[in-house]
Design a protein that fits this description.
The complex is a heterodimer of chains A (280) and B (322).
Chain A: H1 3-17, H2 20-43, H3 50-80, H4 85-90, H5 94-97, H6 103-137, H7 144-166, H8 171-198, H9 201-213, H10 216-225, H11 230-238, H12 254-277
Helix pairs in contact in A: 1-6, 2-3, 2-6, 3-6, 3-7, 3-8, 6-7, 6-12, 7-8, 7-10, 7-12, 8-9
Chain B: H1 3-12, H2 19-23, E1 27-36, E2 39-49, E3 54-58, H3 65-72, E4 80-85, E5 88-89, E6 99-102, H4 114-124, H5 132-142, H6 158-170, E7 176-180, H7 188-203, E8 207-212, H8 215-221, E9 224-229, E10 232-238, H9 239-244, E11 248-254, E12 269-273, E13 276-280, H10 287-296, E14 300-307, H11 311-320
Parallel strand pairs in B: 3-8, 3-9, 6-7, 7-8
Antiparallel strand pairs in B: 1-2, 1-4, 4-5, 9-10, 11-13, 11-14, 12-13
Helix pairs in contact in B: 1-5, 4-5, 5-6
The chains are: A mainly alpha (280), B alpha/beta (322).
Chain lengths: 280, 322
Amino acid sequence: MNPTVTIAALTIKEAVRRRLLLAFLAITVVVVGLSAWGFDRLSHANSLTSGETNLAVPDALILFMFMFSFVLALSASAIASPSISSELESGVLMTIVTRPIRRSEVVLGKWLGLALLLAGYAGGVCALEFGVVRLASGFVPPNPVLAGVYLFAEGALLLTLALFLSTRIPVIAAGVIGVAVFGAGWLAGVVGTLGSALNIAALRTVGQIGRFLIPTDGLWHAAIFYLQPPSLIAEHVAEGGRQDPFYAQGAPSWPYLVWVACWFLIVLIAAVASFERREL
Amino acid sequence: MADAALERSAATSPRTRSPLAAGSPAIHTMGLSKRFGGTLAVNSLSMTVERGEVFGFLGPNGAGKTTVVKLLLGLARPTAGEALVLGARLGDRETRRQIGYLPELFRFQALLTAREVLRLHCRLLALPKATWGEEERTALETVGLLERGDDRVGTFSKGMQQRLGLGVALLGDPRLVVLDEPTSALDPVGRHDVREIIRRLRERGTTVFLNTHLLAEAEHVCDRVAVIDKGTTVAIGSLNELLGRNSSVRVKVAGLGENWWSGLSRFGRWRGEDEWAVIDDIDPSQIADLVRDLVALGGQVQAVIPEHQSLEARFLELLGER
């Protein structure tokens, strides 16, 4: 077996035995259960017209998915930040890196294992939540798979960053920086949206630079786009647009997606280079 | 721990190496140095560890021993100098296949069982899958953990984890085993077991680089030792070479006249101590000649007791000389 795959399998096995997945699953099931009740009430509320319900359900779903995207991002940062640093501090990695394998295989194996765990969790959450919303209200997002992929990518981005930090920085610092970066990215997005709403070029520029440097908010908006019914977007466009952090008028552009792919690649290469150069 | 297990392992594990590497020493360093900021942790270390010998690397805490081990294993880069391990440059990936390493800070995946940890290392060593079962069993048997193989490492005591670490280091029949303070967490029985394992490794022709500050450990098992302090080699040689310089011998002899030792001054400095004659600074290889000469003088030799300086005393003396 390829050493990268061996390390990835080890990472997954340890996470499963740590009952990390079980804990996340249990919390998710409770939250999804509560959301089922909420969506059922919302779609059967007598005080709302069917048109208002059709508007409210996608918005409520986006809010729920925002909560899950936050959980995904925090989880990604939490599981990746100790992956290298704490194992170096404890000595667990010392016998592994002296085996006939490349250090890059250790980093990539960790990344692969953690990314698969994250993908599993993102996929599970999306399937559960979308299924529950469909049962309760009959609403199905226009592209649930792409929405899930972008939610996963948002988490994976923080995972990659936290892994890079983990090659040099102690656990807590790496975790805190990961969360702070997520927060900063989201805030930059909000500032950009405000700039667009109030027509302030400087704020809009902050948002654009933020989405470039920390693409989490850009990916979150990509996920939003695929959660909204096209009819709803057309309605907002007809009304002259809508400016809020929980709305996306268009799909992410190809150049932006290429940049996001480059971002992943750059940070991953930096993680590998950092660990390879580190003296243990 | 079972001796037979190691012998089985030697019989079943194929070794591959290039003829060039085969002829080279196990470890050869030339002016190896390592600086951390303003601290010179290793200062121009030159030494050779021959294949098949048990080499003790001794020194007080903070002497630079573990830094040298890390340099040899490619975990850190030297600031100056060169070194070859099993004939290859430092950190060579393929050579690491032939090196077993028990780190000073030994920890293993707490949520895996001992067998799973060993299997993980079999995978990383790319050993043939058919041999994994035997490798695991042999390693567990060798370090006395056969009964606990299916228990999670997290339930192990520190000493048991160190035993497991030794088992991990022995996987794949390595040509060089680097043990960094291998008995730090072990009880006296465990220490004895480790000494036995080291002896078995020597019998198999495996080179053992034993990094320790426990001098008794080195005295028991090492063929040669190097004493390092403040990153510099203080002394290097066989135990006889290191300890023999100040050897003494006690002789109880009857039937000789007064001042009988005046003709035997070439053997060393003589002094009387009750009914004993003590010869200091004698070359240990000359004791047989001394006895022969005493008998030739008409003496009745009743007892001859060679007295080696202990490694600890010599160690303190060497450090004190600096």
